[in-house]
Amino acid sequence: MSKESPKKNTSILFISKEKEPLFSKKNRKLLSDPLDDNNPITVQVLGICSALAITVQLEPAVVMTMSVIFVMACSNVIISLLRNLIPNRIRIIVFLVVISSLVALVDEVLRAYAYDVSKQLSIFIGLIVTNCIVMGRLEAFALGNGVWKSFLDGVGNAFGYGFMLIAVAFFRELLGSGKLFDIQVIPQFIYDEFGYLNNGFMLLSPMALITLGLIIWAQRARNRKLIEKN
């Protein structure tokens, strides 16, 4: 009697049909955890510099978020694909080459299609190359996991980072100038009736840190398990 040949695992885009669903509970956690329980900024305390420097207005914060999502998602996928080919001793160099190539692409696109925003972001687009969040996820996750999980991890952590940028920028621009996306949101009659004036103090650098601190306080008040024990 002839032995039955073993069933071959058919796969599409490196994803086996016999493995867990694309959006299984475990995979969904890769997207949801960085928004709250494991947020890169408020929990891991990474990427603070850009959170303080580019959040005067909402527009550059949104553009920075989209840029980081693109760079992290693509770099995670590329490193995951190459993980078995990268010698351990030069892995950091490979990370830097991949990230810097993607950042250069983002920078050129912004210069071509959103030059004013590119000028506002200035060196901070270039500093994505050395962002601890991007490098950390390549080392801690993409180097040891498959393509799909690495993609979800990159998108999740980048969006968790960007969500905090947008939240800080929202309050600073709204309370600092009464605008959002440079559109007047607080009507003129409020200035006249209630004596509200543009609170320029919110646009100063210290208020970025104070606003972020208040967001961290609110997050821990809602999610008590994030409070560090002595």
How would you sum up this structure, described in words?
By secondary structure, this protein is mainly alpha-helical. It has one domain (about 40-225). About 60% of the residues lie in helices and about 5% in strands. The protein is built from 9 helices and 4 strands; from the N terminus they run E-E-H-H-H-H-H-H-H-E-E-H-H. The chain has helices at about 25-30, 50-55, 60-80, 90-115, 115-120, 130-140, 145-175, 190-195, 205-220; strands spanning about 10, 15, 180, 185. The strands form 2 sheets. It has a two-stranded antiparallel sheet. A two-stranded antiparallel ribbon has the order 3-4. A hairpin with a 2-residue loop joins strand 1 (about 10) and strand 2 (about 15). Helix 1 (about 25-30) packs parallel to helix 7 (about 145-175) and helix 4 packs across helix 6. Mean pLDDT is about 80; it is low at about 1-20.
Give a concise summary.
This protein has 230 residues and is mainly α. The chain has one domain. The chain contains 9 helices and 4 strands.
